[in-house]
Design a protein that fits this description.
Low-confidence stretches: 169-188
Structural class: mainly alpha
Strand content: under 5%
Shape: elongated
Strand order of the largest sheet: 1-2
Radius of gyration: 23 Å
Length: 188
Amino acid sequence: MDRKQNCIEIAKHMAVLFGAFGQSSDIDRQKIYVADLADFPAELIGVACKKLRYESRFLPTISEIVEAARSLTATNTGRRLPTWAEAQHEIERQLNIAGNYKKPEFSCKEIEQAVKAYGWLNLCMTSQSSISNAWHQLSKLYEQTCKYQREEATNRYILKDKPQGYLGYTEAKNDGLCLLALVLGDKK
């Protein structure tokens, strides 16, 4: 399907979505949604909108549609992130298998990064009296890691076709990042 046909199909999905939430007359907003979602396959947007019609009480935002599409894709491909409860179970299992002496093996990099940030040996040496505090801290680290990975994936997607320096920064030889305005000077 070419881009134009894809946009037409997405526009149909937006008309149904907006209509389901009593906002079918908001054509300008529908155009914004179509423009922002045009890079996604119309079929994926259609099922994401259907999911959101079942789950949402108010008209979903563009980010909610994208998140629903991500969730559906992850479920369909079997590559969804574990919940915190699943991650905790996996960490507990590795505590028993690997312990202090072996390197733990985790199913996803988010769990691995959260455990690394906390410290594997610190976790192994945690006493029973303070393990609940450790789990709480690990859950926060895991949530932050997952959020960071989602943001990074979105950033890479948004910037995929943009030249280096697109956002007003450029790489200077020995100065790290510096504002493009400083390099080019004020044009007023």
